[in-house]
Amino acid sequence: MLINLFDVFRARKVVLPVIHVESEGQAMENAFIAFEAGADGIFLINHDYDCGHLLKVFQAVRDKFPGWWVGLNCLDLYPDEVFDVIGNDVNGVWVDNAFVDETKEVQGYPEYVKQKRLRARWLGLYFGGVAFKYQREVEDLEKAVEIAKNYVDVITTSGPGTGLAADVGKIKRMRKAAGNFPLAVASGITPENVADYLPYVDAFLVATGISKDFYNLEPVKVEALVRLVKDFVRRK
What we know:
This protein is an alpha/beta fold.
């Protein structure tokens, strides 16, 4: 871990709504919804455009919210390629696959990404996918988590598909293997089920569970999720 999630946010639990970018105006409107709801930050993710377009939208959002945490998931780039195109105004990078392979003794590609990041002197948080949807089936979950701690800042997992909740048993296993290392979930979280995950998860990357459609957040749901997470922290 190069950057500590808890130091960045000065909080034990964070909510990061995920905005599927359709246009600059749409991204801006949804960023405002998340900001007004008290979310800790946002992730912008591209489905319909390349990362070049996503970066232009990011810059517009960054200019509008200069002190707020804004991260990116460039779906069309490999992890190492992301560090060729971002600067330190990008607060976080999320990749669905950090390419950790628990079946191998040498983690060649994760180490390459780590060194490239160090050379870039990028100071943001790296959310790396482990046992993530639509990726390789992990044979040894605990070993994969242990290895990932050497290469990412936030171990990030998901349920079996978009909008599908992760098995709580899987999350408990990952929490135990991670120890105090930050753990994020990036699918299937809703205001109705977040209580099941709050004891084990540090960061919630949420889209479907707080949205009214693929591109637009539902303000009431965003507010409810943020409130539930913050109430949990206050009770601790």
